[in-house]
Amino acid sequence: MSARVFLELLAREASAVEFEGPVLSARTGGVGAEALAELEETKLAALKVRALLRRRAKREAELSALFDTAGDLAGLRDLDAVLEAIVHRARQLLGTDAAYMTLHDPERGDTWMRVTDGSVSAKFRALRLAMGAGLGGLVAQTATPYSTADYFADERFRHKTDIDDAVLEEGLVAILGVPLKLGARVIGVLFAANRSVRPFTQDEVVLLGSLAAHAAVAIDNARLLQETRNALEELSEANRQVNAHSQAVERAALAHDRMTGLVLRGGGVEDVAAVVTEVLGGSLTVLDDAGHPIAGDAGVLEEGALGEAASDQPASGQETGSRTGSGTNSGTGRRPGSKPAARRGTRKAADVIADAARSSRALGRTVRQGDLLVASVDVGAEPLCTLVLRNGGQVSDADQRILERAALVTALLLLFRRTVAEAEGRVRGELLDDLISRPALDGLADRARRVGVNLDHDHVVVVVRHGGGRERAAFWASSQATLHHGLAAQRGDEVVLLLPGDRPGPLAKRVAAELSASLGHPATAGAGGPVRGTAEVAAAHREAQRCADALVALGRAGEGAGARELGFVGLLVGEGRDIGAFLASALGPVIDYDARRGTALVQTLTAYFGTGGSLSRTSEALHIHVNTVTQRLDRIGQLLGDDWQAPERALEIQLALRLHRLSG
Fold first, then answer.
1. What's the CA gap between 85 and 73, in Å, rounded?
2. Fewest Cβ atoms closer than 10 Å to its Cβ: which of 422, 596, 613, 614?
3. What is the spatial distance between Cα 535 and Cα 435, in angstroms, rounded to a whole number?
4. CA torsion sign, 123 to 126 to 129 to 134?
5. 448: closest CA among 511, 533, 326, 507?
6. β-strand pairing of 128-130 with 146-148
7. b vs e for 649-660, b when ≥16 Cβ sit within 10 Å of the residue's Cβ?
8. Model-wide pTM > 0.85
9. Angle at the Cα of 335 (from 377 to 365), degrees rounded to 5?
10. Mind listing the pLDDT tens digit for each residue in 623-653?
11. What strands, in cross-sheet order, belong to the sheet with 487-491?
């Protein structure tokens, strides 16, 4: 019967006090000593069974917690969550008021609070433990578990004021600490703490040590996982870079092959610019040695990143006209298919690009300026060409090498073009020299035909006084001669051109305007002709020289004219003394009017100038009324222009009247 009672108590997990109930009842009922002793033995056996069952239940809970922790480690995704679970389980299994974990800081040489559970003090959660200081510092230093039932009364470890203050603020009294070890290295400490005096059993030390081992494994796994992730990221980045580099190399090789093919097929600078923009994108312009656009998009120089910094003044040398060779449109000074470069860009932008070009030539590399990439090439310390690419995106080093290679190819093309132009220019120059100085030499016409010049057609000789810039002027003249199927030569300080045409004056004006724009200072051009064959070139050259000299003497430097445009001066300098042309220019409208209407305007003009410009004496000489004279002079003003009485015009008109009378 007694055994059954104790079994029932065990079955319902009664407290230890309840096991005293049957013994007290037996004593009260007067049970004999022998029966009472047997009952006491049964109680003790039942209590042993109860203790065993409680230990096994506790062990089962511990094993379950360790199993759950192992499961957390197996599915590790968040290290913080795993460590928080371990600390929380330590607090639950040991039944303490708080649990926390510190980790070693190798840079500062101490440990810092990583995770807490049950803590209420901010100062305690921010605590750092020096190696050997406090119970935790002792555990970290010795790699051995330590526990104290009463922290402040324990003298086995070194107390520090800041640590004791934090522990006191948290209200902790009993503390157990076990090391977190990876091999022989301590990486931190796991703690369980109580706010009242309490000794810790060996089983609790072992249990906390098992949880600490799991925590160490979790930390190490997280480290390995992070290292693996970092390695994968590095490999991925390396793979991306390798792919990008491979693509850049392929793109560079493709661009190189295409540019090489262009050169072999006789392509030009425009073709190279097209390849660059197709491969790299953006907008590109190619500048010659003077900074003038010769290919690509000249708008690169006037918009984009430099627009805000640039002033509104036109860039120096940005007039129409270029000193480059073949491919310049007549009268426009630009390449076929390219945009006009007249007055494009600003002085500020041009200066910035020029500085970047100098830096590029000095470094031998591409230079970035705002949104622009500038690659420039020189020969013998003299600039040859500059490529300016505007690309708002990032341009890799490999792509910059493409731009540099394109600049080299462009430089080679320009050098080749210049060499060919110089060779052809020498041939044309020698021929023109012979036409001027030795017109009777045999074979001149055949030599001219071999360079594309037909001397059987009308040609004009133009002499240019350029006032400096001899090489540039000669190069420009050679380019014009090649383009227009003419001849050019440098003779002393003048440039001579033989160009197709029959209007010396307009041609001289165009040559003066375009060469002035290319040189950046006035160039004066005189023209003679038109001529055919070889015999008349020398005479036309002398006439052109006289016209150029006359323009300079008249203070009209920078202009161009033939003998006809010089008025009566043209009669003096003209080789053919074309009186008819002078009369038509100075007096033609009045003569024609008299012929059509039967009027006497020429007679009236003669009388007017003969009387010194007196209306009354003119009317007396002609026997007409003064009003009639006035009306005739008004008509003359309508025919000749309002400035017909200006001194120079009046002199020309009087000379024309004298020649008209002499010619009958």
1. 11
2. 596
3. 8
4. positive
5. 533
6. unpaired
7. beebbbbbbebb
8. no
9. 15
10. 888 888 888 888 888 888 888 888 777 777 8
11. 487-491, 494-500, 459-465, 524-531, 560-562
